[in-house]
Amino acid sequence: GPPAALSLPSDPKVFVTDPTGIKDATVKYFTELFQRAPRAPSQKPWMTTPSVVTIREHLRALLRKGNARPAPGPDLWEKWCIKALSDSALSLVLDLVNYEILHSHFPDSVKPAIMTTIFKRGSRTDLSNYRGITCSNLIKNLPFAWLNHHLSAYITQQGILPETQVATQPGVQARDLTSFLSHGFDRLEPEGFYDAVRAYGLPESLIALDQSAQHNVPCQVKTVHGLTQTFTLSGVTQQGGPFSPLKSTLTTSMANHWLRDVLQDMPDNLTFVTHQGSRGKPHTPDDRLRLCTQMVEAMDDSILLMPTLAATTKSALFADRFQAAYGWETNWSKSLL
């Protein structure tokens, strides 16, 4: 605990033991300790060193990615306007983004979202034939765009995503395909992404960041008569978010790996080899390659590759068991055998 006796700085041989004397000596010591003499202005080259400038340039590079003029969210922050900010003004945006990332927390003031309905097919009077695209605030989207930029490269480098999941892979144009599953992202529960984070040993802060972003989100839907009244959503993978495609593919990647493990010993698995490789006469290094796969994916469109009806039935039951755990449903009317 605190000392019961203090020596005086002016005379170390003199000790103070009374309550008032100890308090006064303590205050005097720390007051003098934390005093700072005014310093003459000086140049600070470390503030403009290339390594420091690169950090700010990363934010500018992030702002240059994607559509330069997307529809603004409820905050009405225009992306093209943010891109044109000076360094001093952009530093304010960077401070806000860093706060959200460091604390894995989104303040309630940045959560409101506006949902736009986009017609898919069928009757225009049936809302199930529309897709709800969420427009969120820019200051909420930026951390996930940053995360998506770096995490995509990492999971590809580490081989987390199967080679047969073509969506979100580098060099592949990611498209939102929603013909295999009923309602796609609308039914995908975030718990699938959280399980993937835990299973692959990724940082738990990813879960905390996403949970904060998806908890109690005030939403309004744009209708022909204007915006609806505000309603609150929690635990929804919002379609239109920069991180939603990667959350989806990380979730389904577990199914892909699982199917490969549980079905690899089946006698009627499908194996891809070149013609020369199948004859045992390799002519090039590629002729020695063999690919045994059970599932090919493009976002939430999937193909189960099995040579027999029995094998297809077995793999479909495994796939249904997986997706049922996370709220997805097979759209049987749009599935083919």
UniProtKB/TrEMBL annotation:
Q: What is this protein called?
A: Reverse transcriptase domain-containing protein
Annotated organism of origin: Polyporus arcularius HHB13444
Top-rank taxon, per record:
Eukaryota
